[in-house]
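Try this one yourself first.
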């Protein structure tokens, strides 16, 4: 009887190695007309250029009015856009610091940098002008927020610390107070201690509540000269008070900001929202993940109000994430480490 041939050993299929994607390299030269701006553009000891180089992985050489950029094609294009935007900001008299440059670098990863900086295609740039500075968006979500501040009656600004929720709202409020769009600026916060008991605080009522309201004062002084802040506080044009002081009032012709709103109860939030009056705008800022009131998230008036009112005509909701943090870049990494990416 003939023997059956031995079966062939099974050989695993090994796919051919996939070709590595070739990184296309490029180089480009850009030129700037105004020599007087080059010092501010390059930074002390070329620190601004080094920041762009390190973040985008390119090489930049300065030759008089010209910059030569080399590196991966995509990175070279982003570096060009960032440097041109830095120059444009300086030409408009705006400030340029490490934080502003970091924000421009982050925004350059969006589809187009111009699309972020313009309210509409070929429209006016988004900015808030105050007595002390001109403020422009430092992230795509900040640009959306700044549009909402000029359009919606009541805005919920949600997200972690360092995203500019309160600061931009105060800046917009100051701008409207200065140009006469509103007659009063009212800033409020719940007087809730953040994880510690302060005990007895000396002084009158103002002295007792001022520690809770300090961040609002800081934002005000950054947008207006100190003497103007003091004069408007004395005249009542600017009012800073705990949320408990809002009961029984109708806030007409006013720009009203509630900060740390996640620490309000449902009853407090309903009371605050129903203070809304004619020719007014309200901004409610808070981080739903940072609730300090007893009972935690279940009692937060902010989450309850957003759930009930989001999508209602006249309300805007802006959600920031750790990617929108505009303080030092490490703050965004801290937020992500503690909380994880926002859902």
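Now uncover the answer:
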């Amino acid at each position: 009887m003939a023997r059956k041939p031995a079966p062939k050993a099974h050989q695993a299929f090994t796919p051919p190695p996939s070709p590595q994607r070739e990184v296309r390299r490029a180089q480009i030269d850009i030129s700037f007309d105004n020599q007087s701006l080059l010092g501010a553009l390059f930074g002390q000891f070329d620190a601004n250029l080094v920041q762009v180089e390190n973040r985008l992985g390119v090489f930049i050489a300065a030759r008089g009015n010209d910059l030569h950029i080399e590196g991966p094609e995509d990175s070279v294009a982003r570096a060009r856009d960032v440097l041109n935007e830095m120059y444009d900001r300086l030409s408009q008299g705006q400030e340029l610091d490490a934080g502003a440059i970091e924000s421009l670098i982050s925004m350059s990863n969006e589809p187009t940098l111009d699309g972020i900086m313009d309210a509409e295609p070929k429209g006016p740039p988004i900015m808030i002008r105050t007595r002390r500075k001109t403020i422009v968006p430092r992230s795509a979500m900040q640009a959306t927020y700044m549009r909402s501040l000029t359009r919606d009656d009541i805005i919920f600004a949600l997200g972690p610390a360092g995203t500019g929720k309160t600061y931009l709202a105060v800046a917009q409020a100051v701008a409207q107070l200065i140009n006469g769009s509103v007659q009063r600026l009212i800033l409020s916060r719940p007087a809730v201690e953040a994880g510690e008991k302060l005990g007895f605080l000396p002084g009158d009522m103002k002295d007792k509540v001022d520690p809770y309201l300090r961040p609002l004062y800081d934002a005000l002084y950054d947008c207006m000269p100190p003497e103007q802040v003091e004069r408007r506080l004395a005249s009542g044009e600017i009012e800073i008070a705990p949320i408990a002081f809002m009961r029984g009032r109708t806030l007409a012709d006013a720009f009203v900001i509630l900060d740390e709103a996640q620490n309000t109860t449902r009853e407090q939030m309903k009371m605050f929202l129903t203070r809304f009056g004619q020719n007014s705008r309200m901004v409610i800022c808070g981080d739903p993940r940072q609730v300090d009131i007893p009972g935690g998230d279940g009692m937060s008036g902010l989450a309850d109000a957003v759930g009930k009112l989001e999508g209602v005509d006249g309300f805007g909701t802006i959600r920031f994430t750790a990617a929108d943090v505009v303080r030092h870049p490490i703050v965004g990494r801290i937020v992500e480490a503690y909380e994880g990416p926002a859902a």
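Discussion: The first strand starts at residue 25 and ends at 31. Residues 158 and 165 are 8 Å apart (CA to CA).
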